[in-house]
Design brief:
The complex is a heterodimer of chains A (220) and B (483). Helix content of chain A is 78%, strand content 0%. By secondary structure, chain A is mainly α. In chain A, helix 2 packs parallel to helix 6 and helix 3 packs parallel to helix 7. Chain A has one domain. Chain B is mostly helical and 483 residues long. The chains are: A mainly alpha (220), B mainly alpha (483).
Chain lengths: 220, 483
């Protein structure tokens, strides 16, 4: 594999991890949406580069879906929902920014250690890609766990899903990648419509035990 | 050349898909309910014919083998009896105005679509198709759980959707890793995602990648099985949706997710250098049993109570497959089949009970054996079966699991028994309160369709007294396959 191809792929997937870390510390709705747009753009570039480097034209479709759907349509829709539902500008996180970032950094380290040990050393191209993809997935999960607000949870989920697309695009010759990206687009559309229709602003976890009991249908 | 001109595998998918499409446009809900039953009956006949028709070679996308045929027949059967129950259930729901004809159109279409998704997941000969169809089936149930549009139902389906989306994502990552583990040995392209070629090349797959893949698959599909600590969606989803859906969720969808885990476990068994999945499954199964058993005590909602009981039983089955010896595998399969029959039967009773009382709260339900004798005694019989009392079949399967593991893991089995006992008393405590005592609340008789429940409970009873030789041979053969 040409080392230039590898370097660019490395740069792009590394930037995706960086964008994931940036998502972690955003505490304003609009800033979060901007960073997510950046995240989706980087993913789109990265998948397009894989399509070029692997000579797999079908991956351009996945890149195009990422660009149109995730970098344009979803952020625009979410902005309108935020305005319509009057969601608070400041987002709450469960833990502070500092501890969350520390956990995030250790998750990146963990995924590097795990993947570099488990993948065959010969296949550098997909190996590094996989390590970064796992990091993005773990960071997405961290974001879902540490956020209370439905919109930021959805953004966490979408960043997680971007990590999956990175992994799938990096697996050489994997079939069904395009179909999978379409399936995820449908899923995300569902979720976003769900937020809008049911006006879900907050996740239903709260320290107020009465509220929890009521939502669980368990109050006498 | 196939000697037999009729191939039921494709029709098993065409019938539910076509009827889903048809039902989506049918306005008359009474007719729709009948067509739903008819389509389910046809699927059941087709699934039975799989047993008789000589089996074709695994195809490009679909396959039938000794393992999935058990699940297919069971799914089609419970799908059919549940459609019978559903016809009576929705009639009542429409009369009291909880469901409108428009929602019912959606409901029937989704019911068939769910069966389609599950059949495709079971038949798939491709790990990508498996993933996509499990996703389809899950999303369908998410929509069904939220169908009543109450705050609780929406909260339950939102929680279910978020958790299962993350699970879907993890399962996909596991699928990608499996492909990466295989593409060196099997070759690039669709071949490296096909079950049949993965199994023939199992020994040459890349061991560390395959181990990592299994962990992600276990987390992903394990969430849908309801394994502790990934079970949080399950009680809510069972409690807030329509009861026929609770029956299908517990009886079928959990099994389909379990099937996916077992398939990947089989793949690992073919490779000597990977991590051994047995201890992981034993630990998760045991933790699930213990956790769910203790959670049974503080329940106040009847459907939630049996939701936790489903978690417990999924733990038992996972535990059995984790033990992994032929007897335990046999017992695990048997337990899975009997649990499906019993639990969906219980949900048939629970559905009628909550309609008769107008409430799902355990506190509102008393003295059922006096006010509604059939429902009261039915619930009691179902509960005795589910806690594993003889002469019901679940006693046999639980006994086999315990005896198969006692020699190799005595301490673990003791903990497992503790879990079973705690669950036993928890359920008896709650159900006796509902079945006996002085009746409270509404006492008007209600129109009950007894047939589905009677078929299920009689089947479970028969299995406990006498297992037909053909069935034993069939399950034993499948258990051999599992290793």
């Amino acid at each position: 594999m040409n080392s230039f191809y590898f370097d660019v792929a490395h740069l792009l997937s590394g930037s995706l991890v960086l964008a994931s870390l940036m998502l972690l510390y955003q505490d304003r709705v609009y800033a979060l949406l901007h960073v997510f747009t950046l995240h989706a753009l980087v993913l789109s570039l990265s998948v397009a580069w894989q399509a070029f480097a692997q000579d797999a034209p079908h991956l351009y479709i996945t890149a195009a879906i990422a660009l149109v759907f995730k970098a344009i349509l979803i952020p625009v829709t979410l902005r309108r929902i935020v305005a319509r539902l009057r969601i608070h500008q400041i987002l709450e996180t469960v833990a502070g920014i500092g501890p969350t970032m520390l956990v995030g950094i250790s998750l990146v380290a963990l995924s590097l250690v795990v993947t570099l040990r488990t993948t065959p050393a010969g296949d550098r191209f997909s190996r590094e890609d996989l390590a970064f993809a796992l990091a993005v997935i773990l960071l997405g999960m961290l974001m879902i766990v540490t956020r209370r607000n439905a919109i930021s949870q959805v953004i966490g989920f979408m960043s997680l899903e971007n990590g999956l697309m990175l992994a799938a695009a990096g697996a050489k010759g994997m079939p069904l990648v395009v179909e999978i990206s379409v399936a995820f687009a449908v899923l995300i559309a569902f979720i976003v419509i769900g937020i809008f229709l049911f006006r879900i602003r907050e996740r239903f976890d709260t320290v107020d035990i009465l509220v929890v009991d009521r939502f669980r249908g368990e109050r006498r | 050349m196939r000697s037999f001109p009729f191939d039921p595998t494709l029709w098993l998918l065409v019938i539910p898909a076509a009827s889903a499409l048809f039902l989506a446009f049918l306005r008359d809900w009474r007719l729709a309910a009948r067509i739903n039953v008819l389509a389910c009956f046809l699927s059941f006949c087709l699934a039975l014919s799989l047993l008789a028709v000589p089996r074709a070679e695994p195809g490009r996308y679909l396959m039938v083998d000794d393992l999935n045929i058990v699940f297919l027949v069971l799914n089609a059967f419970v799908g059919f009896t549940t459609s019978l129950f559903s016809a009576g259930y929705i009639q009542h729901e429409t009369e009291i105005g909880r469901l409108t004809p428009r929602l019912l159109r959606f409901y029937h279409a989704m019911y068939q679509f769910l069966l389609f998704g599950m059949a495709l997941a079971l038949l798939a000969n491709n790990i990508g198709v498996l993933w996509a169809s499990v996703e389809t089936a899950t999303l369908t149930t998410v929509l069904m759980v939220g169908i009543y549009r109450t705050a609780e139902a929406i909260e339950a389906s939102w929680k279910y959707m978020m958790l299962s989306s993350v699970a879907i994502a993890l399962a996909l990552f596991g699928t990608t890793l499996t492909y990466m583990a295989a593409h060196q040995a099997v070759g690039e392209g669709a071949e490296a995602m096909r079950w049949s070629s993965l199994f023939t090349h199992a020994a040459t797959l890349d061991p560390p990648l395959l181990s990592l893949a299994f962990l992600f698959v276990l987390l992903g599909y394990g969430t849908k099985v309801g394994l502790f600590p990934l079970h949080a969606w399950l009680p809510d989803a069972h409690a807030e949706g329509p009861t026929p859906i609770s029956a299908v969720l517990s009886g079928l969808l959990l099994n389909v997710a379990l099937y996916s885990v077992i398939r990947f476990k089989m793949l690992l068994a073919g490779n000597p250098h990977v991590l051994s999945p047995g201890p992981i499954l034993i630990t998760m199964g045991l933790a699930t049993v213990l956790f769910a058993a203790f959670m049974l005590y503080r329940r106040r909602d009847i459907k939630r109570l049996f939701g936790y009981s489903s978690i417990e039983h999924m733990g038992i089955i996972t535990f059995a497959f984790g033990l992994g010896n032929p007897l335990a595998n046999f017992a695990g399969l048997l337990h899975m089949a009997l649990h499906s029959l019993t639990k969906s039967g219980i949900f048939f009773m629970v559905g009628h009970i909550s309609q008769a009382k107008g409430s799902q709260k355990i506190a509102d339900i008393r003295g059922l054996t006096e006010s509604h004798p059939f429902l009261g005694w039915g619930l009691l019989a179902g509960t005795l079966a589910i806690i594993g009392l003889p002469p019901f079949g679940l006693f046999l399967s639980e006994f086999l699991i315990v005896s198969s593991g006692f020699a190799s893991h005595p301490w673990i089995i003791l903990l497992f028994l503790l879990g079973l006992l705690v669950a036993f008393s928890g359920l008896v405590l709650r159900v006796c309160g509902m079945a006996f005592g002085k009746p409270t609340g509404r006492q008007e008789p209600i129109h009950v369709i007894p047939l589905p429940f009677l078929i299920h409970i009689l089947a479970v009873l028969t299995a406990g007294i006498f297992l037909p030789h053909a069935l034993v041979g069939w399950f034993r053969q499948t258990a051999q396959l599992l290793r």
